[in-house]
Amino acid sequence: MSLRPRIGLLTGDPTGIGPEITVKLLAMPETREQAEIIPIGERPVPDVPLGKVSRVAGAWTLANLRLAAEAIFGGEIDGLVYAPLNKQAMKLAGMQQEDEMHYLADHLDFRGLCSEINVADALWTSRVTSHVPLRAVADLITEQAVYDSIALLSRIRGSARIAVAGLNPHAGEGGLLGTEEIKFIRPAVERAKADGINVSGPYPADTLFIAARRGDFDAVVTMYHDQGQIATKLLGFERGVTLHGGLPVPVTTPAHGTAYDIAGKGIANPGPIKAAFALAVTLSALGHANARPRLSGSTPQPLPESQSAASDSPRPTPLSQKHPEPPGPQ
Ligand SMILES: [Zn+2]
Prior knowledge:
This protein is of the alpha/beta class. It has helices spanning 18-27, 29-34, 55-73, 87-92, 100-107, 134-140, 143-157, 180-194, 205-214, 225-236, 271-285, and strands spanning 6-10, 36-39, 79-82, 115-120, 123-127, 162-165, 199-203, 219-222, 241-245, 251-254. The protein is built from eleven helices and ten strands.
C-alpha cells in the first residue's frame, strides 16, 4: 500500500444530494492530502430529474457498485466511500439483495460475515439482526449470531469497550420477561470474554445508551435495527456514518439518504460524507483491519450448547496489541 490509501469514491444516486456533497468533499484540501482518490462511475452520468426515484439512476448506481466490486477484487483500492444511494431505485433496476452491502458482497463473491455498523462520533453500534420484520427477530438471536456481532466490532475496533444490549425489557429480568438473555446472549458474552474481548452485558437496552453516551463504552451490540438506530440518530444523526463491517476493505457512507427535499439547492451539508471518508481512510491505514480472517465460521449459525464454547473454535488475536485505536470520525 502506498503512503496514502487509495479510496474509491462513488457520487451516489444522481437524483439526490450525492453529487453535490461529493464535489464539496473533493473541494476540501485535506481530502486529497489524506488519500489518493479513485473516482468510480460509468460515463456519461444519466440525465435524470432531481428529487425523483429513477430506475435509470438505479441501474447506473448498480453498474457503479459492480465497478467498485471489481476495483476491490482487483486490489486497486484500499477502501470505498459512496454518497447516498436510493434503495428503491436500485430495486426498480432489479437489485435482488436486501441492500447495497449485500449487493456488493455478492459481487465480491464474499461469503463471510458482514454487518452494518453505525458510527456516531466516538460511539459505534453493530446489530445482531438488521432489515428483518420485528416478528422474526427473536428466532434470529442465537449464541453464534451474538458472538459474531461482538467479534466483528472487536476485530475492527481493537480494544474497544463493548457493551451488549438485552433483547427483552429489563434484559429479561432473570427470565421473567424472556429467556434469550440467559440462553443465548450471556453465553455469547462469556465466550467473547474468554477470547480476550473487552465486552460486558447483557444490559437493559433502555438505559444502556445513557451509559454509552457518558463514555462508559466505546461500542454497543444491539439485537435489532431500531434498538440501536433510534439511540444513535438521537445522539447525532447529522454526523452519522455507516460502515459495512466485515467486507474485504472498509466501505463507508453517510448515514443520511438522498435528501430529495433539498436536492439541487446547493445547501447539502458535506459533514457526514467527510466523516465517512475520514473513517475509510483511518481503517484503510490500519492495514485492512476489515480483512482479518473470519473469527468463528463464515455464517452465523447456532451451535449446539455443548459446542458453543468449544476450544476448537478459532480464537481471535486481540488486536489491541497490534493496532492503535482508530479515532472516531470528526
Ligand atoms: Zn436501515
